[in-house]
């Protein structure tokens, strides 16, 4: 079952995150707080100003967790293939590499939202998967 939840709702936890460049390029990287409990390789729902996409969590050379590629579906996110919606979002939104954005925890471990600071968006929050189903999926993913 899914519910509509605004970014300013008390159930949504918000973190200020930095948008950095990957190396010497202008491609964006979102640094993730360690408090989120995510791990390298996790694929999560990742909305950009309310538009639903998916992203795979990566570990930087420094050992920090980040998102560098946001895709249209889970497979593309896992393979880091297809259009990178994060690059498009940074180009179109009122944010920039070297600046910051707000990261909302919609459903811990499952769904997150990145938004322009000060912008209110509405997310579709779903219940996390049944633990037995997520265990099977993790076994299949390796």
The order of strands across the largest sheet is 6-7-3-2-9-10-4-5-8
Architecture per CATH nomenclature, i.e. the level-2 architecture:
Beta Barrel
Tell me the number of strands: 11
The residue-averaged pLDDT reads 88
Percentage of residues assigned to helices = 10-25%
Overview of this protein structure:
The chain has 142 residues and is an alpha+beta fold. The protein has one domain: At1g16640 B3 domain, CATH 2.40.330. The chain contains 3 helices and 11 strands, in the order ββββββββααβββα. The protein has a 9-stranded mixed beta sheet. It has a two-stranded antiparallel ribbon with strand order 1-11.
Please summarize what this structure is.
This protein has 142 residues and is of the alpha+beta class. It contains three helices and eleven strands, in the order E-E-E-E-E-E-E-E-H-H-E-E-E-H.
List the helices and strands and how they pair.
Layout: E1 2-6, E2 13-21, E3 28-31, E4 43-48, E5 54-56, E6 58-59, E7 65-67, E8 70-71, H1 74-79, H2 85-92, E9 100-107, E10 111-115, E11 122-126, H3 131-141
Parallel strand pairs: 4-10
Antiparallel strand pairs: 1-11, 2-3, 2-9, 3-7, 4-5, 5-8, 6-7, 9-10
Summarize this structure as a short list of keywords or feature phrases.
two-stranded antiparallel sheet, 9-stranded mixed sheet, At1g16640 B3 domain, 142 residues, alpha+beta
